[in-house]
Amino acid sequence: MIFRKRLYFFSIGLIIGIFLMIFIFRGKNASFNYMPNARVIENIISKDSIQFTQSENISFTTENIKDIISNGKVDFKNSNSRNKPCGIYRIISSWNNAEVVLEIKNCSEFINVVQIF
Question: Which end of the chain is more exposed for a tag (fewer CB within 10 A), N or C?
Answer without folding.
Answer: N
